Amino acid sequence: MAPHDFHREDFNCIMRESLKLPYKPLKATGCARVCLKHLLSFRFPPTCDRKYNLGPQRSSTENVARQVFCNLLKVEDDINDEACELVNGVELSLGEGVDTISAYLFTAVKNNNGTGVLLLSDIFGFEDSSTRDFAYRLACNGYNVLVPDLFCGDPWTKDRPKAMLEQWIAKQEPQRVAKDIATAAKWMADEFLAAGISKKLGIIGFCFGGGRVIEVLSRDQGACFGIGVSFYGTRMDPSLASEIKVPVLFISGNSDPLCSVNVLKDIEKDIGQRSRVVIFQGRGHGFAHRPNSPEEDKDAEQAFVIMRNWLYDDKEGDILRYSSVFHHFLLDASDVFSESESLAGCRSAAL
């Protein structure tokens, strides 16, 4: 099959969302699997000038930041603006019967590195614009990102009284959430194996999802996931840390009342495995994917770069060599950005 010889019926199944056409969620086999196989080799013909942009348009500063993320580091070739626009998305239906869950898959068309990442959302769910924006940016950097619905179509919404939050959280039964995450993880493992890509996956979580990262990795024991990232995880169980067999990066702020720095350090120590804690001074909960000020925008960009470098190190097998740049003491914004730039420079020299 020539690089640009992509069957239209295969292409349509992954592009319905970006073309704004009506569709039914794909089941976990068939067309979605065919698409995964083709996406790694597909390139638009040189004469094609159509671009399909799934990127959210929340602010002009974020559009600039997205280009920075894509160009800070040379992975294989320089990534240009066009590559950032070629991210495809499709809604999926995973599992069977009453165990079926919804999910959204973002796939990089250009510079796809073949790595799958499971992204666990905060309480606002998989359809939230901030979560999808983050998933889009991650896909822009070459990853295939699956965002499952953890709340059975009933995420928390900002218009609800805060007094009802604990009652809503109590309805999210841990066993049901764990089963839904396992369904998503199994789908990723099966599909990426069937497509001939990597068998090891990455897992990332924010807030509620960040706390679930610890639980998932403690059960997985390195069978499916090879690396994890937890952004200001909530309701974490430190006793599970010793069961985790893969490196985990923890990112949070020292002004976050929902994620204790001391707890993170204890978890990091118990995990070992080259895990790291990065704390942003003065930052509260949610700053990395829900920045509310220009200062938080800057730190959010730097947190993304640190996370991206962490994932890239693991993909290249270099995490042991370079992980010393991640320290578990308080860093201000300039320190973090300086370290991430140094890491990129070291890697460029090594490649």
UniProtKB/TrEMBL annotation:
Residues 101-311 form the Dienelactone hydrolase domain. Keywords: Cytoplasm, Hydrolase. GO terms for molecular function: hydrolase activity. It comes from the Eukaryota. Pfam families: DLH (PF01738). Coiled coil: none annotated. InterPro entries: AB_hydrolase_fold, CMBL, Dienelactn_hydro. It is found in: Cytoplasm, Cytosol. The keyword Endoplasmic reticulum does not apply. One of its GO terms (cellular component) is cytosol. Belongs to the dienelactone hydrolase family. PANTHER family: CARBOXYMETHYLENEBUTENOLIDASE HOMOLOG (PTHR46812:SF1). This is Carboxymethylenebutenolidase homolog. It comes from Ricinus communis.
